[in-house]
Design goal:
With 257 residues, this protein is of the alpha+beta class. It is 20% helix and 25% strand. It binds uracil.
Amino acid sequence: MSDGRVAADDGERLQKVLARVGLGSRRVCEDLIADGLVTVNGTVAELGRRVIAEVDIIEVEGALIPVKPSAVYYLLNKPARVVTTASDPQGRDTVVDLVPDEPRVFPVGRLDYETEGLLLLTNDGELTHRLTHPSFGVEKEYLASVEGTPSRLALRQLREGVELDDGPTAAAQASMETPGLVKLTIHEGRNRQVRRMCDAIGHPVLRLVRTRIGPIADRQLKPGEWRFLTGEEVRSLAVATAPPVDEPAIEPKRRNR
Ligand code: URA
């Protein structure tokens, strides 16, 4: 059918499609449908519903499920002692092992082996470029448990910039959440930057967790768990990385002389 509806025996069973993209076993996906959490083209789906992955818009609890393997966006809560690469020559667990195998995705930027927290994985190269390129300056927020309790002066140093071996850091936001727990928001993405900034003020990091990437945060996602970004979140990332209005996205053509 061309209008997006499917005849009774067209398409695949909804639970099969949902299971294929990693939402759980077919049984778990049947429960999602039975609980009324799945909509197809804006209408709550009933068990037995069939869909055509190329046509139908499938949402689970409001999150757009990319059943058609084009662009996918995962938000992972990276546990400690997992490497942020697609494959590791030393055979350690990688972040890619924690999300579905298909379609193939890549991490957006990197978190150190010991760092925990939010990490995006996608096959959208354009968004990856925008999120990782320093010129877009997307904010990243971290909670750092540090040795001792930094003084007000030390926090001010973090805010105003500290000298690292690859140059001074840009202005940042830094505040004390509880004694020894620093919230730091930076918009650069230098190697081990937060750890080095905390070393520079004499308070080495004991534990580091990334809690926000631009507009994306999630306090419910447990270490090792992932979820799809919602359509709204993908849009908000595009907005957060949009070039300034006075800067044309495409360089104007030079006039021939
Ligand atoms: N800063 C660090 O020091 N480590 C990370 O993983 C991310 C930011």
